[in-house]
Structures are given as C-alpha cells and as structure tokens.
Amino acid sequence: MIVLVADCCARYNDDFVEAEAMQSGTVQRLVTADGTYATQSAFSTTTSSTKKEIVRPPLRKFLMEGDFFIGAALATTLTKLALRYIEAVDSPRKQNSFIAESMLIMSTVIHLGKSGLPSKPITDDDVDRIALCLRVLSERTDLLRSIFSQLCRRSLNNMLIVKAEEDKQNQQSSERRVVKVQADDPINFIQLISKNEMGVLENQFEVTLSQALGTTGKKETDPSSSSKLNKVTQLTGFSDPVYAEAYVHVNQYDIVLDVLIVNQTSDTLQNLTLELATLGDLKLVEKPQPMTMAPHDFCNIKANVKVASTENGIIFGNIVYDVSGAASDRNCVVLNDIHIDIMDYIVPATCTETEFRQMWAEFEWENKVSVNTNIIDLQEYLKHLIKTTNMKCLTPEKALSGDCGFMAANMYARSIFGEDALANLSIEKPVHLGADASVIGHIRIRAKSQGMALSLGDKINMSQKKTLKPGTAEA
Questions:
Q1: What is the mean pLDDT of residues 111-119?
Q2: In the predicted model, is pLDDT for residue 182 greater than 70?
Q3: What is the pTM assigned to this prediction?
Q4: C-alpha closest to that of 250 among 307, 300, 299, 194
C-alpha cells in the first residue's frame, strides 16, 4: 500500500513503452500473384497479441477501479486500531511508529485518488472522511477518542437493534395477512352492475332514496354512501341549457365516468352526444352512443377510460345536440376538465437501504421541489407529506425522534403498474427567524419515468400547506 502510486506509475510506463514497441515493429510486405505490392489500411489491421490482464490484489483492484469508499472504511478501521493500540502498548516509540504507518497509508490512498491513475477519481466525501481520520490520529484528544472508541460502537449497536426490530415487525405483519378473496368467490364487475356485499342484486334508486329519507341505516362500506359526493365533478354551469356532472370511479387500471345529464330546456334534444378526449396515458375505450332527451328529462351515460401509466391525466370534451324543430346548427356545451389524481395509483411500499441506493443511482429523472408550507414542526410536516403522497418513510422512527433543528428522511412508494418512486426529504427549522417560523428545505423526487416524477412533484406542491380549520387564522 505504501508504494502503491509508484508501482502503478511504473506499470503504466511499462505498458506505454510496450505499446509503442508494438506499433513501431516491422510491417511485412505482401506481394500479389501479378507481382505488385498489396496495400492494407492501418485502421483495418488487427494485432494477434492481446494485452495481458493485470492481476492485482483485491484491495488494490477496488481502489484502481475507483471504489474509494473502501479506502474511507480502511482509514476508519486503522484509526480505531491505532487508538486501541495506544491503550494496549505503553511504549511511546511503538505508538508513534504504528500511528505514523497508519497515517502514511491514509495519505497514500488520497494521493492515489488524485493521481489520475484509477478509472474514477476519489470523491470529496471520501477525502473528507480520510482527512478526519488523519486529524484524529494527529491530535488524539479525549473527545475524539471517545467518539471513535465508544460512541461509534454504541450507535452501530443501536442501529442493528432498530433494524432487527423493524425486520421482526415486518415479518409479523406479513404472517398476519389473511386471504380476503377465496379462489371460488364470484367476481363482481363494477362496469356491469352494482352489488352489495352478499352479491344479491338490489335497486340502487330505492337504496339512495331510503338513505336520503333516513329510513335505513347507512353502512360504511356501502358504495352508495355520501363519500361518493367527494368524487363528483361538475362539468357545466347551472345556467347552461344542458347540465352535466360526473362521478369518477377509479378501479385500478380503468376509470369509470358516470355522467348525469339534465335537459333544462323545454325542447326535445335529439342526437345528444357526449364527446370525450384524453390527455396523457389515458385511452377512451368506446364512444358513447347518441341519445334523445325529452324536455326537463335526465339520463346517465357511462364511459370507460383505460389507464396505462402513473401520471396526471386530463379528460375533457363537450356535449353536442340538435333541437327538435329548429333549423339552426348543432348546439355545443363545453365541459370542464376532469383531472385524474395520481394518488389513486400509488400505494406505500418498502425496500432495503441497498435497493434504495441502487434505484436512486439508476433512475435518471429527478424533480426537486422546494418546501413552501405553513407548518412549523418538522415531524408534523413529515407526517403531512406521507399522508398526502401515500409514500412510506424508510428512515427508522428512532432516527427521526428527538428535538433537532433539521431532518433528513427517505420515502418510497410503488404504483399499481410496478413503477417505483423515491423521495429524499431535507428540511430544517430556521431558528434565527423565531419559534413560529415555517419549515424550509427541499424534496428530491426520482423516478424511472418523467411523468411519474413530475406528477408526484405537482401533487406535493398542491398539498404542502396544511388546511386551517374554520375560525383560525394563519400566524
């Protein structure tokens, strides 16, 4: 290790001289059958001799390939060994000799990383880590000794305990999973008909009328409950001749639009057609059929839309119709846009730290979102972000506990289409702005597709601020 750079330089010079000797060798002249000399292009000449692959020891091989994280780990190990050697050996001469040799090895690793010989140069993080180890061995204060000798081991022990508890909880949660759907259970197609839990047909009009009058109890799992009103989108105004509103039902890979159309005029509308178009990875399955509506009549039109990927989609369109007995052109009512929420396709998921780092390095699309919120607590902002994005925090709870001025956490989610989404949260509490100052920082989102990264960033931007309760004012 001590003569690593000199040895590599010597090997590099020998290879360079050998390559020049091979290029300056004699070229054999070729004579054709008619006695003329044959010429051959230098670009098409192939040499039969191949360069010998250099066999290096494992540690030297990793360093020459640019993996200097091993060099930083080696520096930390040598520092801890040197500190223990000082406590075990009383001879100052032996202590200084061992420390000097350890510091020489560390400085050689830095010199090799900046010499240009490895395939990749050493990173600034590895240089800072090795420089810190050199400073520890040169100063040898009581604080640095306690950190490297005792506190580091204690932190590693706590991390392993937390990891074991987390693995145990994940294993117990996986064992508790029960089969909710048996293999011989009937399949309920929502697009065809609505059924209750027992699979018995029922009159949906009577059910909704009974619930409106309060003559029957409303079940939480009833699909006709009032929670459906949250998914109703108004498509036209109340003053338009044709009023329309749509109930958007997301069922994994397809979206069902149940559009209610009301004729608010005293005329008969003929050839009334609902024309829809999509923007994004959405595809309209079939075109709705034209209908005829009597004065002040209403009808329901269903349209199916297929979803291909996890990104924000928009459904827009209009209603065209003819007035019975009128000689004018077709009338058109433009509909409001229906925005499909990305959160309907994202579910929390888990992965290991190694898989997270690997995917973080592989994914090429990144979206950096600045934190702009009225939340003043770090933990509260993290919980609010997890709730609004359906992502799972991979950072252990004990690593996030405590009163600190900053926080860093990793989050992970996966869509129903198998697309992965990664997020890194880096926020802080600006103490100099007062106790009521809002959280600041940024969120880095990485995904394999551009639409996933942009859509998730838009969702975070729209839901960063916490909704205040009625009667309260923002500080």
A1: 87
A2: yes
A3: 0.55
A4: 307
